[in-house]
Amino acid sequence: MSDEAPLSPPRRALIRNLALAGMAAPLASPVPAQSPPPFPLDFHGTGPIPWFARAFHLYTAQGGKSRIESLPVNTPVMGEIALFLRREAERVSIGGTAPNAGFSFHVANQPTLLIPIFGTMLIGLEDGSFHELRHGDIAIAEDCSGKGHISRAGPQGSFMASVQMPKALCPATGSSERDKLWFR
């Protein structure tokens, strides 16, 4: 007679199932090899950058009115790394805005990189124009003075990331200071 206690029915069933699984493994069909993803994982600098559609710069022009300009989106050449902006960051926020909700005229207060993830964000200027930011766009808001701009989510709402930089990086009023902002 053995010194070991007999196996309880649940332990006995577990060991039996493990043994059966081990015997059946050679009979099971092999796991198919994973196919490559339907999109390239590396960007090699040919054609437009697939994840970066448009870039905008919001700044305070002469007279304290906010203006928005398109920035060039250059494709990196083979082997290059596309570095578009490098600044110190103070705070990163990710959040959503309900459809059509937003803020009336306000200034950026400190340079802020806006990255739409879902939906749209409408940026309104004093002249009555609205500029739509959507997935694939980025914008840097540097209208730190003057009347500012309106921010409002589009009809589907908006989910965005924003990166706020030090207030000391606000450009002078009346100049976009684009050469200091954007790498070429």
Q: Overview of this structure, please?
A:
The protein is mainly β. The chain has a domain at 54-181: Jelly Rolls (Sandwich), CATH 2.60.120.10. The protein is built from 2 helices and 8 strands, in the order H-E-E-E-E-E-E-E-E-H. Strands 1, 2, 3, 4, 5, 6, 7 and 8 form an 8-stranded mixed β-sheet that branches.
Kindly summarize this structure in a few lines.
The chain has 184 residues and is mainly beta. Helix content is 11%, strand content 35%.
CATH topology heading of the domain at 54-181: Jelly Rolls
- What is the C-alpha radius of gyration, as a whole number of Å? 28 Å
Q: What is the distance, rounded to the nearest whole angstrom, between the alpha carbons of the first and last residues?
A: 84 Å
The level of helicity is 10-25%
CATH class of the domain at 54-181: Mainly Beta
Structural class, judged by helices and strands?
Answer: mainly beta
Strand content bin: 35-45%
CATH architectural name of the domain at 54-181: Sandwich
Total DSSP helices: 2
The biggest beta sheet is recorded as: 8 strands, mixed
* Envelope shape: globular
The ordered H/E elements are HEEEEEEEEH
Q: Average pLDDT value? A: 75
Low-confidence stretches: 23-29, 34-45
Number of strands: 8
CATH H-tier superfamily of the domain at 54-181: Jelly Rolls
